[in-house]
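Collaborator request, handled under Task 6.
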Amino acid sequence: MAGEQRTAGAGLATLEDAARAATPSALEPREEIEREIRELLDRRAARAAAYGPTYAEVWEAASRCAQGGKLLRPRLLVDAFDALAAPQLRGSERRESALRIAAAIEILHFSFLLHDDVIDEDLLRRGTPNLIGELLRRQEAVDGDGQAPRGGAGGPLHWARSSGILVGDAMLSLVHQVFAREPLPEELRLRLLDLLDHTITESIVGECADVGLSDGIMPAELSAVLEMTRLKTATYTFELPLRAAAVLAGAVPRTETAIAAIARRFGVAFQLQDDLLSAFSSSDQHGKDPFSDFREGKETAIIAYARMTSAWPGIEPRFGAADFTDRDGAAIRAQLVACGAEEFIRSLVDEHLRAALELVSTTDGALPPALVDRLLRLVESLEKRRF
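Structure tokens returned to the collaborator:
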């Protein structure tokens, strides 16, 4: 499957689309998940109002930005819970707990996005203003001075970015409160809290590595980039919701261990596919500047491979250049294809998907048939996620 140039637009373009195609039953609890997210954010909005209009408006803007997504992670959790849980748990308080934990995981995702947007100095997400961009727009409308956004110490842009960090922290606090206060047996609650701590730690380490690699603090070796990919994406996008479902369903540790191994393979494959989409597809498919990874000097696995080839001296001078142009982007894209980087990363995606398929198919009874069926369909949809 590796190395074939796909037609633009073919296959599934986003991580959320892949999950939707693979787990159609996960659409059923969507309204329930949205309700839980609204309730969690609205309760905090009432508290925010007590601190005055400025913070209340910031929280209101953040709440709107946090809602309306495709809910990949919470839907994976609820769908996996329904596949794992005994019949008596599916209509019980335990399922209500699963919905609340799922909602908290979506809020965790948003908190990570907020911090990521600050780190990357982004004002847009999927072509529309993110929280920072929205706060900046509002403040400039109030100021009405027509001046360009200011950075550094002071000004609307500094305030908006600072608010992004602080709201991200507040969202993390909310997530911890949901996990800690959920009315579950103590053993299960502690397992969930340990899982949350593990997830946040790995995500932080992965983000730190991402920045360190791009800024030249860490050597940009392929093994380091792949480990960063696992830490930054696989743990919180797949391992957390799937393992949390196992805990909530009362699954034995053997089942949770099997799920974790499969989730890691899914996560790395997804992120490598996203890297391919960012590097070789159009902005219509991934919602970003078509050359943003090259423009920002982002150290992806594609670039790490290219560094080991004779093509790198021709790529390096314009990679991440301050005066980077679209012409540079097109030239780098062509060189990455010619040196075999695209083909190599496609082969890695296929390798991880084959490994996931093997794990799903050879669990020796560790996973119930209903979950095996869902995971097999997820593998199938990922294999079609091409461009």
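The cover message to the collaborator said: "Residues 15-383 form a domain with the Farnesyl Diphosphate Synthase fold (CATH 1.10.600.10). The chain is about 70% helix and 0% strand. Please let us know whether this matches your experimental observations."
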